[in-house]
Design a protein that fits this description.
It comes from Neopusillimonas maritima. This is DnaA regulatory inactivator Hda. The protein is an alpha/beta fold and 237 residues long. Helices cover 49% and strands 10% of the residues. It has ten helices and five strands, in the order ααβαβαβαβαβαααα. The longest helix has 20 residues.
Length: 237
């Protein structure tokens, strides 16, 4: 098996609430965990703070949950609004700032359905995410106001200390020990996105085994020089 095929078989672990690094986002995570029928949460914050992770993790923990992304939003929202999907317990809509005008109208209708059904047997939870606060969201006005109808939380990037702890924890789970200079280099020169960092650690582990060398800063730089284009493609697949 080629090195490229080996790397392609090592995706990031699936997002769960347990493997989300909470940092300063404890209140938001608690709200996501306990968002039940008839409740709504809007999460906003910078890219890489974990919005998609939390939405996908919550959907993965619930039967009859629907995860909606801009790439499939129009068709999924249409099916929900037309009762083609029977009584979902949770609808999670990610990256609403990337929805087009027509799909924004569908999400507006979904909010109205969520509120109208809140006290009925068909009540469902609604979790929505975007890059901006409700007040600053560049979308149609009637939808913008609905983003603040229930709970709103801003997700914060992890501190360097939290990210270092997360990297070391991930390494220990794989039986690795990261040298302090490797962790420091990653914190100062690499992405803040924890899912990409964890993917990197997973792939670096296999690369070090192939080369029969310990994970040192020279090995990390060599790996990135050869494999970063492949890792970047994995993140967008």
């Amino acid at each position: 098996m080629t090195q490229q095929l080996i790397l392609e078989l090592i995706p990031a672990p699936p997002p769960t609430l347990d493997n989300f690094i909470v940092g300063r986002n404890a209140a938001a995570v608690d709200a996501i965990k306990h968002c039940g029928n008839g409740r709504a949460v809007y999460l906003w914050g910078p890219d890489g703070a974990g919005r998609s992770h939390l939405l996908q993790a919550r959907c993965g923990a619930i039967t009859d949950a629907i995860y909606v992304h801009p790439s499939n939003a129009q068709s999924l929202l249409e099916r929900i609004l037309n009762d083609e999907i029977t009584f979902p317990k949770l609808v999670a809509v990610d990256d609403v700032n990337h929805l087009d005008d027509e799909t924004q109208g569908q999400l507006f209708a979904l909010y109205n359905l969520w509120r109208a059904s809140a006290a009925s047997p068909n009540a469902f939870a609604l979790i929505v995410s975007g890059s901006f606060s409700p007040q600053a969201m560049p979308i149609r006005e009637d939808l913008r106001t609905r983003l603040g109808w229930d709970l709103v939380f801003r997700l914060e990037h992890l501190s360097d200390q939290d990210r270092a702890q997360a990297l070391n924890n991930q390494a220990r789970e794989r039986g690795l020990q990261l040298a302090p200079e490797v962790v420091n280099w990653l914190l100062t020169h690499y992405t803040r996105d924890m899912s990409r960092l964890i993917t990197l650690i997973n792939n670096l582990d296999h690369y070090s085994l192939e080369k029969q060398r310990g994970i040192t800063l020279p090995l990390l730089r060599e790996f990135l020089a050869q494999r970063e284009p492949l890792l970047a493609r994995q993140q967008h697949d």
